[in-house]
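Tutorial handout. Part one gives the primary structure; part two gives the three-dimensional structure as tokens.
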Amino acid sequence: MLRRRNLSPLRLVLLWILAADAVLSCMLWTAFAKNLSGSSASPVEYALAAVLLLLAAVTLAAAAIGLTAWLRRGRDLRWLMADWATVDGEPAAYALPPGAAPPDEPAATGGGRWWAWLLASALACLAGLALLGAVAPALGPDTDPYDLAASAGVIVPLLGAGALGLATCAYHRRALGGTAD
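Part two.
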């Protein structure tokens, strides 16, 4: 049961939501900075900048709190799985026949969750690297710093979410002694 919680679809969706929230926050910060860099100083632009600043701060705080909760939940699940591994096996009265999978867990050969996490995380990393490869040749002395910040605000969360997902997959596989699920 703990193994299923570690790679639950809800945790994967939450990781993607946190990455999207980080991208949104970076875009709002970039829009705020770009709005203030203009030469005209009308009250409407200052009001828009204040709204952008508030939205950027809220989305950044939500991403930070969500990421902290996600990491803490993963740590707690890893500790529980490690503690469970130290416990002597099931009592003989509850032992399953050889080769039978527990009723609440898939068979050891059906690693669907692990593969879903692995593929989603690898795709996130590849998308981040592809964007980095597309942006890197365009960099130069005349590059707008706001465009650079906006592209970094997309690339870094993609790479971060992919790396966290791959690390979760690697720990899950190692904790199970090399089986996929």
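Part three, for discussion. The helical segments are 2-6, 9-36, 43-86, 112-135, 145-175. Residues 2-86+111-175 form one domain.
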